[in-house]
Amino acid sequence: MEGGRVAMTKSELIARLAQRYPQLVAKDAEYAVKMILDAMTQALLAGNRIEIRGFGSFGLNYRPPRTGRSPKSGEKVQVPEKYVPHFKAGKELRERVDQATEEAAAAAPQRASQPVR
After folding, report:
1. Within a 10 A sphere around the Cβ of 12, how many other Cβ atoms?
2. Nearest to 57 by CA among 87, 34, 31
3. Residue 15's closest CA among 5, 28, 35, 29?
4. pLDDT at 79 over 90
5. Are 29 and 21 in contact (CB under 8 A)?
6. Which pLDDT belongs to residue 114?
7. Interatomic CA distance for residues 77 and 31, integer angstroms
8. The pLDDT of residue 1
9. What gap in Å lies between CA 97 and CA 93, rounded to an integer?
10. Does the CA dihedral 96-102-106-108 come out positive or negative?
11. What pLDDT is attached to residue 43?
């Protein structure tokens, strides 16, 4: 990612969920995250589209068979057809990310101009 940021892992998501909702034991938070991800996986495996209002949608994109080249030998290789998962961010998510990015960019010069203590 940009700026040296690291992606959030599943275990970090579980920890944040348990921290935000103290009535949830970490084990229950872990179970909830696992069940949601499993349900999403099963829906995609069945060829269904997943839409989460305000967040985005998940679907499958078809990639037709093609002739590729082996990077090692340069030989022609037949690449079979496949379906690949695809995420499309929803309007609300795009707007929130854009706003947060603009705010962070505006705050960066202010921080740089403050004296070091």
Report:
1. 11
2. 87
3. 29
4. yes
5. yes
6. 59
7. 42
8. 43
9. 6
10. positive
11. 97
Q: Which helix (H) or strand (E) holds 86?
A: strand 82-89
Tell me which of 109 and 1 has the higher pLDDT: 109
pTM: 0.72
Q: With beta carbons less than 8 A apart as the criterion, state whether 95 and 102 touch.
A: no
The DSSP symbol for 57 reads: E
Integer Cα distance of 115 and 36 in angstroms:
47
- Name the nearest CA neighbour of 54 among 92, 106, 17: 92
Say which DSSP state 7 is in. Answer: P
Q: Which two tokens stand for residue 8?
A: 């959030």
As given in the structure block, the two tokens for residue 91 are 């309007």
Rounded Cα–Cα distance for residues 39 and 70 (Å) = 36
| pLDDT digit string, tens, across residues 13-72 | 999 999 999 998 889 999 999 999 999 999 999 999 999 999 999 999 999 999 999 999
For the chain, what's the residue count? 117
